[in-house]
Design goal:
The structure is a single chain. The chain is α+β, with helices and mostly antiparallel strands and about 70 residues long. The chain has a single domain, classed as SH3 type barrels. It is built from one helix and five strands; from the N terminus they run E-E-H-E-E-E. The chain starts with a strand and ends in a 12-residue tail after the last strand.
């Protein structure tokens, strides 16, 4: 699943692929924002961990869970 996270006052966005479902990602972000946590944590497919500060969190875009098609379509 492709994830793109926008950080306030930053010209670039954080972009990575995760094995988590869209519901899990949404719940993680919602819980952190509700509790007033300083950051929320997401992991990518390679095991890297991203800590995103909630104070400068602007948006999150979660891609589809569909696998990409490779090859030519006739």
């Amino acid at each position: 699943m492709d994830i793109r996270i926008g950080i306030a006052n930053s010209p670039r966005e954080l972009s990575f692929e995760s094995s988590q479902t869209a519901a899990e990602i949404e719940q993680t972000v919602a819980d952190a924002l509700e509790k007033g946590a300083a950051f929320f944590r997401l992991a990518d497919e390679k095991g890297r961990v991203y800590l995103v500060p909630t104070a400068s969190f602007a948006y999150i875009e979660v891609g589809s869970e569909e696998a990409r098609r490779v090859g030519f379509v006739a």
